[in-house]
Amino acid sequence: MTKNRPKIKKSRLFLYLLCVPIAFWLVAPTLVVIPLSFTPQRSFAFPPPGFSLEWYENFFTSPQWLGGLLNSLQIALLVASISSILGTLAAYGLSKTSGFRKTLSNGLLVSPILIPAVIFGVGVYAVFLRTGLVGTMAGFVLAHTMLALPFVVVNVGAVLVAYDTQLERAAWVSGAGRIRAFMTVTLPVIWPGVASGFLFAFITSFDEVIVSAFISSPALQTLPVRMFTSVQREVDPTIAAAATLIIILTTAIALTAIFTRKKRKV
Amino acid sequence: MTSEQTPGAALELDGVTKNFGSFTAIQDVTLSIEPGEFITFLGPSGSGKTTTLNCIAGFEDVTAGEITLAGQSLTDQPVHRRNLGMVFQGYALFPHMSVEKNVAYPLKQRKVPKAQREKDVTATLEKVGLTEFRHRLPSQLSGGQRQRVALARAICFNPPLLLMDEPLSALDKALREQLQQEIRRIHRDLGTTVVFVTHDQDEALALSDRIVVFNKGKVVQVGTPRELYLQPENVFVSEFVGESLMISGDYRNSQFHSDSGTVFATDTTQELGWTGPAQMMIRPENISIHDAAASADTAATGECSVTGFLEDITYVGNAVKYRVGLPDGGGIVRAEDIGGEVADIGSEVTLSWAAADARILAKETSEEPAHA
Amino acid sequence: MAAETVAAKPARRSLGPYGILVVPVVVIVLVAFVVPTVLVLIRSVTEPELGLQNFQWLLTSETAVDVIIRTFQLAGLATLLTAVIAYPYAYVMATAGPKMQAAMTLIVLLPFWSSMMVRTFAWIIILQNNGVLNTMLSSLGLPTIQLLGTQTAVLIGMVQVLMPFMVLPMVSVMRSIDMRIPLAAQTFGARPIKAFFTVYLPMSLPGVLSGALIVFILSLGFYVVPALLGSPRQQILPNALFNQIRDLNNWGSGGALAVALLFTVGMAFVLVYLVTKALGLKLGPVGGSQV
Questions:
Q1: Which residue intervals define the domain ABC transporter in the entry (chain B) (predicted)?
Q2: What contacts B151, CB < 8 A, 6 or more positions away?
Q3: Does residue B143 share a domain with residue B32?
Q4: Residue A123: its chain C contacts at CB < 8 A?
Q5: In this complex, which of C19, C37, C241 lies closest to A97 when CB atoms are compared?
Q6: Pick from B317, A182, B347: which is nearest to C21 by CA?
Q7: Quick check: is B98 in a domain?
Q8: Tell me, what CATH number does C85's domain have?
Q9: Chain C closest CA to B211's CA: distance in Å?
Q10: Is the link from the previous residue into C48 a cis peptide, with omega within 30 of 0?
Q11: Element (DSSP H or E) covering residue C16
């Protein structure tokens, strides 16, 4: 046993060393877009041969780029809000039911995660063509909500599993009706699950490309779709500026999430 | 403060039955509880005591029967309109609210004005001795303190009926006894009717005016602690409440015939009106125990006596508990500590008791629940 | 005890119409998700006319068959690669202290949280012919390599995002493995390597399988990464489907491709189910707690 000890440690060190390049490959590549966004040339050459804010200026003055960002933010906020409300209600209802009905509804609500989004994209495209929803805000919100709902149902459901239903009974006995007990006791207690569901829903919508590519029109485009067409058709470092802005935005959201969670625990 | 108090209300259960599918959780529970009375539901897990409490609280709809509080039917009232105080087994404190917000919650639901609310919360927290903890969160309190907050939340609006579901089961023994005293004191102060659920017989004996013993979904006996101890009506109650010595046999001709043929005189004042398989029960402190070999002549001090083997000896403070095995039964005998054992483990002992202290109980078949 | 547990379940149902909360959401998902998806599948047999001509095309056209086979290959390769890279990472994570574990979770989730478009664009910058990687290689005096537009590039980009879906289920199974068992095997004379392959690896297999299931299914649905890092001549199902519909307006053959894609996903489920059953394993949590 004692002889084996240093050997185990050596193999462990090897494993740690193996993890370093993996971690690097997971984290580092994305960061190359930041220096690139300051390039003074209309090229993706790396490292950039100088410094300029040209592409940021271009981003904020172009209706296509800035408009895409604003559309994306607006859609993502609406989607996150709607799916948080619907998903929380559904998860709460599901936590109180059992048996076949529960399995079926649960499977149905989670299916959008498992079925490749491209199939759904084709489907909504067909339906939206007929109903005139292609290239509309309502269409985007409806389609993205379908993709975001499962994340809320799963996140809130996970918190509800650990929720002590006695708390709700205590609220009822104290004189609160069903709805008020839910609003004043259940909802505040399961709030972390709702919040992370909201975050997942926001990111899902904000990041969505494939379904959005089907239903966008020149008049209404989201930022990821704008980036997608830009990469395919042209060499325009504005995309690097857009990517940098997205990195800043998502990092800010993640940090707030981590920070508020830590604060809550104390 | 006395002027603000609502006196406790009378609670009546009439033929309350609750089925879950084909399973009968409680069957035909009929009880009459006096205003201001401290009643304990005692029974093992699954005996129906908690289901009965849940029916009173309104968490379960009754399948049949009627529950009335102060003469008014509760059966069709939703939980939040029943105006009850309740303390839950796991405390069920709202984790996101401070102590004072927890206590104020029922007052807020009753739309008590803010100033009055503040006053009531302060008074209640004083009553349970938590004044300096009012701004803490439940997670920052000890188990005993949480229990007090739960109690404060249940009594702050002076409910006519207070329900307590095994409130002390999570606490250690010393704390439990201290809180038992406080619960008694608060009950005396408020004058509210209390229904207390427990599976702990000592707790039930210590707290209650009357005890309702549950077994297999039915009420098997209702009585004061003294009645249950001295006059159990069935084997279940005699075994569940207190310790005893049991002998198996038959009851006929006002005499008890043990399975091995010994005949014992019985208490003539206990009118049974039946004959058949029976158990004779004697409480441990009513039996005297002697070393059979040493004092065979002095053994028969009581009217009845029997010989058995000493199986075990336990010291409990000022007394000694002897576990004795008999040909047709056995059980516990309790004697003053005379500075040493009356006999060694494994030796023969003689037990004797007065016929008036023996109680004859009908034998229970395993299928049929207690003979009520 | 038994009675009270029995009591708790049906009581919930009697507590009122909570099911009603689920109904509107279920109806919305049925109308806005299930119906459009099913319509796509139906179109495979109704467009341009009623019949199986689209499936005939799917199974006889060389391009269509190539696309299906390539999709399978890519998903299989991606799953295998992810499993191989994720396993040592998950092992270190499962056996590390709580702080290290938290840091490693954060790192593995980072690609998942960062934008798909941003990440893919970054890979283009790195892998393109005069990109970061080749600049570094030539400055070291090494020959440059053509990566952008190849399956390798697609795999590099895909596996990065798929990592958490493999690592998290692996970790949750590995954490439940009692480390004394492999150690016990060693004390009985098994060498550490042998103890690992005969004891630890089989015990961690449920985590690998549930990770593999979700990773395989997810890799079948990738669109952006193959479209931007791969070659247009090496299309996979989702890209072919997009082109058929959006560029060629071919609803019938698009529907047939959708059926093929969905069928593959279904097959993946069945396959993993059969494997777990044959090996008598219990599946770990699919997708892990974060997904």
A1: 11-241
A2: B87, B128, B167, B182, B183, B186
A3: yes
A4: 35-40
A5: C19
A6: A182
A7: yes
A8: 1.10.3720.10
A9: 21
A10: yes
A11: none
* Whether residue B115 sits in one domain with residue B39: yes
What is the tally of structural domains in chain B? 2
- For A63-265, which CATH class? mainly alpha
Contact B289, B322 (CB under 8 A): yes
For residue B279, the domain's CATH number is 2.40.50.140
For C227-281, write each residue's pLDDT tens digit: 999 988 888 889 988 888 888 888 888 889 999 899 988 888 888 778 777 776 6
Of all residues in chain C, the one with the smallest CA distance to B44 is C1
3-state secondary structure of B85: strand
From chain B, pick out residues whose CB is under 8 angstroms from the CB of A190.
Answer: none
CA–CA distance, B139 with B129 (Å, rounded to integer) = 18
ipTM comes to: 0.88
- Domain's final residue, options B178, B194, B229: B229
Please, are residues B96 and B41 in contact by the beta-carbon 8 Å criterion?
A: no
Of C16, C110, C124, the CB nearest to A27: C110
How does pLDDT run across A54-73, given as a tens digit for each residue? 999 999 999 999 999 999 99
For residue A199, the number of C-alpha atoms closer than 13 Å in the C-beta half-sphere is: 23
Nearest to A38 by CA among A227, A229, A244, A251: A244
Task: Tell me the C-alpha distance between B198 and A203, whole Å.
Answer: 51
**B210-215 and B38-42 strand pairing:** parallel
CA nearest B332: which of B311, B353, B350, B347?
B311
Same domain for B337 and B211, yes or no, is: no
Residue B152 sits in a domain whose CATH number is 3.40.50.300
How many inter-chain contacts (A to C, CB under 8 Å) are there? 231
Q: Which structural domain, as residue segments, surrounds residue B32?
A: 11-229
How many domains are contained in chain C?
1
